[in-house]
Design a protein that fits this description.
Layout lengths: L1 E3 L1 H4 L6 E5 L5 E4 L2 E8 L2 E9 L2 E15 L6 E15 L17 E2 L2 E3 H11 L36 H15 L1
Antiparallel strand pairs: 1-9, 2-5, 3-4, 4-6, 5-6, 6-7, 8-9
Bound molecules: zinc ion (2 copies).
Length: about 180
Amino acid sequence: MLLNLSDVLGEQHKTIEREIPVEMDSFVHEGTSYPVLSKEPLSLKVEHIKNRELLITGKNRITVEIPCDRCLEPVKTELMLDFCKNVDLDMSDGEQPEELDETNYIDGYELDAEQLLRNEVLIGWPTKILCRDDCKGICNVCGQNLNRGTCNCEDTGLDPRMSVIRDVFKNFKEV
Ligand SMILES: [Zn+2]
Ligand SMILES: [Zn+2]
């Protein structure tokens, strides 16, 4: 949704405070699309600081489905977003003080709330996702989810080089 900034940039510098409905149904991260399970409206506040400098604060909670790093089972992941950014519209993107603060979401007098939210989801994206702390992962041989039960593969999940060592030991015993 596009938010018109003319009130806050105009003579009166009226602060804009809005609850903005979120449109995204999925989030694409590094080429993979993750379904958005639930989302709240984005609470957004845009205040004037000086000249064409704005303070943008926002809060949002969004739940995304991300596969577990070990067993690939989908994990409901809640992202709590709470941001506060200083944007000087007179500066070009490269001159913005905060490195991650690309102003790709402001075009003239319009703020693209959806794009702003996408940036924030990207910043808040978790680096590690586990369905549970002690997730056992999947068997490298047969693909069995080891949280649900064991499989019949011998000494699964180990580095294949280990089995070479194991064979060497076996041969020793036989001699
Ligand atoms: Zn898992
Ligand atoms: Zn197996």
